[in-house]
Structures are given as C-alpha cells and as structure tokens.
Design a protein that fits this description.
Helix content: 25-40%
Distance between the termini: 86 Å
CATH class of the largest domain: Alpha Beta
CATH topology of the largest domain: Rossmann fold
Number of domains: 2
Strand content: 15-25%
Number of strands: 14
CATH architecture of the largest domain: 3-Layer(aba) Sandwich
Structural class: alpha/beta
CATH superfamily of the largest domain: Alpha/Beta hydrolase fold, catalytic domain
Number of helices: 13
Length: about 500
C-alpha cells in the first residue's frame, strides 16, 4: 500500500508540474506572422524615370537557438528591372536616439518621398506637404530603413522583452542580426553593402560594421556617418572633464557667426572656423588644462578670445570659469533678444519664456519640424505603403514604460561612456578596403563637427588608412538635408561615395 501511495503521489506531482509548465507556456504570447506588403511606384530623378517596389514589412529575428525574439519593422525600396543583385548596392539606414525610429532619414533625405519644411523657420500647421525626393539615393542604391526594437512597429516576441534590446551591445547585435536575415531572405549576400546611421546611429554603425565582419563574416563596402558621435566622452559634459568644452567651441563660433554675434564678422565662415579650431585646441585647451592654477593675466587673455569666438560676454565667461555647456550657450547667446538657439540646428531660434533661466528649456528646431515629419510619415506609411493600421507605429521609445538604455560597451575605452571608434578602427584594420564617409553640419550642437574630427584623429588608425575616412561639411545642422541647398550637396556626396566604393564595373 505504501508503495502504491508513493507512486500515486509521484504521478500527481508530475501532472501538477506538467499543468504548471503548460500554464507558463500559455502566458507567452504567440509569435506574430511576418509582414510583407509591396506596392509599385515610379518617379523622375534628374530627368530620368525610376520604377521601384516599396515593401513595408517586418521580419522575425531569431537568437542562436533559432528561437524567435523580435519582430523588426522596416521599409525597403528596390529598383525594378534589376536582374543581377551583384550590380545593385543596398544601403541599410536608421536614426539614433537611442530609441528613435528611422522616419527622420526616411522622409528627410534617403527615401523617395520627403517632407516639405520651412527651413530654418517654423513649419506652418497642417495640412503639410509631401513631394517626390529628387535627393533620394534610390538611383544609386536600394534602401532598407530599419526601426530598432521599441520603435516603429518593432517589438520583442516570444520569451524576449523589449528591454533585452535596449543597450549598446544588445542593439548592435540585434541590428546586425536583422541585416543578416534580410540579405538571406532577399538574396543580397553578394550585393555591395552600406551602413548609414545618423546621430547615435553612427555609434551603432561603427559597432554593427565590426560585429558583421568579426562575428558573421559580412564585409561592407562603406559606412556613412551622418552627424557622428562615436565616443560619448568627447561630447558629454561631465565634472572634471574639459574635452567637450574644447570640441564644442568651433560650433559655438559657427553659431555666433550665423547670428551676427561676431565683432567685425569675417565673410568666410570656413576660414573663420579654421581659426576657431586652432584657438580651441591650442590656447583654450592649454588654459583649461591648468585648471585653478591659471594666472589672472592668462585667463583674461583667453577670455578675450573666447568672447570673440563664442559671441558671449566677457562677464558671462568669467562667471562660467571659461566653461559653457551647450544648453547654457543655447540660452545665453540671444538672451538679449528673448530667444534661444536650437541644439539640433543652431540656425533655428525660439522664444525664451524665462530670461532668468540658466539652461534652454526647449529645442526650437525640434519644435519647428517634428509635427510635420510625424504627420506626413504616418499618412504615407498607412496610406501609400498600405501598412495595416492595427500595427501602431512608435516614432520613438521614450514614452514606453521601462525604457532605460544600458550604456555599457564591451570595449570600455571611454571611462564608462560608450566608444565604438575602436570598433570602427578594428574593422578598417581588418578590412583595409573599407571606406568611411562622415557628414557634418557646422551648426549642429548635438554632434559637433570638431568632436567628430577629434574622435577620428584618436582612433589609432595606421597612416595609410587615414585617407579612407572622408569628411564633408555643410552650412546647416544635425539634419543638414532639410536645408534645400545642402540637401543637393549631401545627396551628391553620398551618391559619389557609393559609386566610388561599390566595385561595380
């Protein structure tokens, strides 16, 4: 009897365990199906007709165990009539944040449609205008716009959670996995490949390029960095660190020049900024290095020049101890006009509601164009591209509960701040044919051009590889492509780069 009772108890326990496991598995939402909605379109670029297929879709991303972990949304544009994929480049593009969808680049410069904005002023309220984008790169490359997990319609599936993807290395791995999945499903393994990211997306791009190459044996032809930030240590104002004050100064100078805050303003901005760089990296850097040991005479001499280049008063610079953060500069430069300048683009100005505030409370450029970009993209996505309206598109992940980025990186050269300049240097060393194009706006306070120059100069590249990094500059801001004149130049620079590096004969 005891033996039978023991068996019954064991059998009951097994059944209870099985029921518990079944209940646990039932709590895991079913994996959604992949999405692939195609539409046909045509446009005229530079007088030549182009027919193309737009695919609004989402692919399942799997882990090493072949378990589904994410549904990653994308919009792809492929030129019709291409019979040989080896003769047609493909560019994978995204924005930054981290936590931002790709619709800024999508509707600003890369895709075949663009938002019309009133640069550099506030765009009037709706209805907004969308038009064919003659500055798209579709004439030289197919395009895949990627929305990282938590943005667009991308989300974790199966046992995974969105937060599993919210970190420097987690994000790099996921985006790399998507690229591999895409080129496999669409037979693009032997196509010339390009990675294009903006802002935080440039830090991602450096990591993705290296991850693809070192872990997945996928070499890319080129990397395009739009408004670059590879090393956060050069652009984040932290106590006891003076480098950002040095690397931001030339952008302060460009901004002061634009808003006529430079005494005896020179006519040549490029020459003026060369002088600003020399002062920033020379006398100014030397003065900051001395800290409290600087003499009164030297401090006065430096502040005189600092006032000239920054457009800020000597009195203010004395109070700031020669160190002005970007949000302080935004608030101070045009305080006498009750205006603040933009961070994303300092050509833009907005009304300062608090003239006693130390810091700017808003970004006029973002205020001026964000509603237009959002409204036009949503209309285009669900209208022209026919995406199912049951899939809610998130412009960003910032309002998502639990959104908190993990800033740790496997190569912690930046003293706790992420730095993927080392990743890019490794990629270029292991693949000496890899070329990098970096696009920089003179009026960008989010990712300053001198910071980018500093990052590249400190990558430790072998001398023969340094020409592989190509710098281009624009008299605009972070999104240099919303300036109609610079958009034409920007498109040409990207197109020329792809043509020169695609190895297509």
């Amino acid at each position: 009897m005891k033996k039978i009772s023991s068996c019954l108890i064991l059998l009951t326990c097994c059944r209870l365990f099985a029921h518990a496991q079944a209940a646990k598995n039932d709590s895991i939402p079913p994996v959604p199906p992949e999405i692939k909605i195609t539409t046909k379109h045509s446009m005229v670029m530079d007088g030549k007709p182009i027919s193309y297929i737009a695919t609004a879709g989402a692919m399942i991303l799997k882990n090493e165990k072949e378990e589904p972990i994410a549904l990653v949304g994308y919009v792809a544009y492929t030129k019709e009539g291409t019979t040989d994929a080896t003769k047609r480049p493909v560019t994978f593009a995204y924005n930054g944040g981290p936590g931002t969808s790709s619709y800024w680049l999508h509707m600003g410069i890369i895709g075949p449609k663009k938002v019309v904005v009133n640069d550099p002023y506030t765009t009037p309220p709706p209805p907004y205008k969308m038009e064919d984008n003659n500055n798209s790169i579709l004439d030289v490359s197919d395009i895949v716009m990627i929305d990282p997990v938590g943005t667009g319609i991308s989300r974790a599936v199966g046992k995974a959670k969105d937060k599993d993807f919210w970190g420097v290395d987690q994000d790099i791995k996921a985006v790399s996995g998507f690229i591999k999945t895409y080129i496999t499903q669409n037979d693009r393994w032997n196509s010339p490949k390009y990675i294009l990211g903006e802002s935080y997306g440039t830090l991602r791009s450096a990591g993705v390029t290296n991850y693809l190459q070192e872990n997945l044996n996928i070499a890319v032809n080129g990397v395009i960095l739009v408004s670059s930030i590879l090393n956060y240590a050069t652009q984040v104002f932290a106590d006891g660190t003076d480098v950002p004050y040095i690397t931001f100064l030339p952008t302060y100078a460009a901004t002061a020049w634009y808003h006529n805050k430079i005494n005896n303003k020179p006519t040549d901005l490029v020459a003026f900024l060369k002088d600003a760089r020399l002062f920033a990296a020379g006398e100014y850097a030397g003065a900051l290095m001395k800290g409290d040991d600087i003499s009164d005479a030297e401090k006065e001499a430096v502040i005189n020049k600092l006032s000239y280049f920054s457009g800020l008063s000597k009195d203010y610079l004395y109070k700031a101890n020669m160190r002005v953060k970007e949000v302080q500069f935004m608030q101070e430069l045009l305080r006498d006009k009750q205006q603040v300048v933009g961070r994303i683009d300092t050509r833009y100005t907005g009304i300062s509601q608090d003239l006693l505030s130390e810091y700017a409370q808003t970004d006029p450029q973002s205020d001026a164009i964000s509603p237009a970009f959002t409204a036009v993209f949503m209309s285009y996505y669900y209208g022209d591209l026919k995406m199912d309206k049951n899939y809610a598109y998130k412009p960003n992940a910032y309002a998502t509960e639990g959104f908190d980025w993990d800033w740790k990186h496997k190569k912690p050269e930046a003293g706790g701040m992420p730095n993927t300049a080392a990743d890019l240097a490794q990629s270029m060393s292991h693949n000496p044919n890899l070329k990098v194009l970096t696009l920089n706006g003179y009026f960008d306070l989010a990712c300053t051009f001198f910071s980018t120059e500093y990052d590249v100069a400190h990558m430790g590249l072998e001398k023969k590889l340094k020409p592989n990094v190509i710098f281009k500059y624009y008299q605009a801001g972070h999104m240099m492509y919303i300036n109609p004149t610079e958009a034409v130049t920007c498109k040409k620079d990207i197109a020329d780069f792809i043509k020169a590096t695609s190895n297509i004969k």
